From TrEMBL:
Protein location: Cell membrane
One Pfam family here: Cons_hypoth698
Keywords: Cell membrane, Membrane, Transmembrane, Transmembrane helix
Protein name: Integral membrane protein (TIGR00698 family)
Organism of this sequence: Azospirillum rugosum
Membrane-crossing residue ranges in chain numbering: 44-62, 103-121, 133-155, 161-183, 195-215, 227-246, 267-285, 291-314, 326-345
InterPro entries: UPF0324_pro
Bilayer topology: Multi-pass membrane protein
Family affiliation: Belongs to the UPF0324 family.
Length: 350
């Protein structure tokens, strides 16, 4: 242990330039979001979206050399995994369970159906399997956060992650602007609209922006439904980890190392176990209230850092080549999710 601690500064030193670069991009993204708030009253593009866009722009103009690469890679992987783990402390299962089993089961069913439909749409449009999974998870669960959490589990390429997040971000803004128009068109009451917004809007801040113009009830219900979708992230990523571990064997590539690949700590990424563990501790009241805000803030900062790192690792030409198919897949998947959500509302007769 002492030997490891003694070597820790030497292990950390090569990462500092790349991490500092990601930090600079993140700071610029946060400042840009602040400018949005001053100009428009709210940030339509969140810092994590701006971070990946700024990082991609920087990468387009300049290719980082070997000095920067280790820290960029660590920020894109390890810091992202820590951020996802810390998200577990923000989930309160007690509040979710208070909504009633019918709505909870319906939301889980919508997520499952939307995942299947979105993945099928992506594959029909010719997207690679990993890209189709990213689009499906982003649309069906929680947008950028789901894409970011799923990517390391399925081994997605940074170009695919960046493309999925970029198109999801743009569409997310359009959804926030256009979704309230469905209230008179579909004759939705505030609770029904809250359920629809919670099922279709990607990020929690965007749910607030989409529901606030309608009613306070819409805000409360939309946020609750959105949190249930976020809670689905753990089981979905766990399932994807199982499928990813089985894939080599199914393709006839299993060999001497198969047994090692199927061990539990390989099947279930450590950060997902941490996510579920923190959610359980939060439910049991074992996470001090004073720690919740700092943990949420730390998760947010680390997520923005990791998005900057992903942007810095992107070849924009690859993103542009995937653009039309990914855009079509995201749009059609979102329409399918909306249709499934309206079906749930009619079924529950809210």
């Amino acid at each position: 242990m002492r030997h490891v601690l003694a070597r820790f500064p030497d292990l950390l030193r090569p990462l500092l330039p790349g991490v500092a670069l990601c930090g600079a991009v993140s700071l610029l993204a946060t400042m840009a979001a602040g400018v949005e708030v001053r100009l428009f009253g709210q940030a339509w593009l969140e810092p994590l979206v701006l971070a990946i866009l700024i990082g991609t722009a920087l990468r387009t103009a300049w290719t980082p050399g070997p000095r920067w690469v280790p820290g960029i890679h660590a920020s894109a992987k390890t810091l992202l995994e820590v951020a996802v783990m810390l998200l577990g402390a923000s989930i309160d299962p007690k509040t979710i369970l208070a909504a009633g089993p019918g709505l909870l089961a319906g939301i889980a069913g919508v997520v499952a159906a939307a995942l299947t439909a979105s993945y099928g749409i992506g594959r029909l449009l010719g997207l690679p399997k990993r890209m189709a999974v990213l689009v499906a998870c982003g649309n069906s669960i929680c947008g950028n956060s789901a894409i970011a959490a799923t990517a390391p589990v399925i081994g997605a390429h940074s170009d695919d992650v960046a493309a999925s997040i970029a198109f999801t971000a743009v569409l997310g803004v359009l959804v926030v602007l256009g979704l309230p128009l469905l209230v008179p068109l579909l004759g939705l009451n505030p609770m029904e609209y809250g359920v629809l917004a919670g099922l279709t809007v990607y990020a929690v801040p965007q749910v607030l922006a989409a529901t606030a113009p309608v009613a306070a009830v819409s805000v409360q219900v939309g946020t609750l439904v959105k949190l249930v979708r976020v809670l689905m992230l753990g089981p979905v990523v766990f399932t994807l980890a199982l499928l990813a571990a089985r894939q080599p064997q199914e393709e006839g590539q299993a060999g001497e190392g198969t047994g090692r690949r199927l061990r539990a700590h390989h099947l279930v990424p450590w950060f997902i176990l941490g996510f579920l563990g923190l959610a359980g501790l939060r439910a049991a009241g074992l996470v001090p209230q004073a720690l919740l805000a700092p943990m949420a803030a730390a998760s947010g900062v680390l997520t923005v850092l990791s998005m900057a790192a992903l942007g810095l690792g992107v070849d924009v030409r690859m993103v542009a080549r995937a653009g039309v198919r990914v855009t079509a897949a995201v749009v059609l998947s979102l329409l399918a999710l909306g249709a499934i959500g309206v079906g749930l509302i009619d079924l529950l007769n809210l």
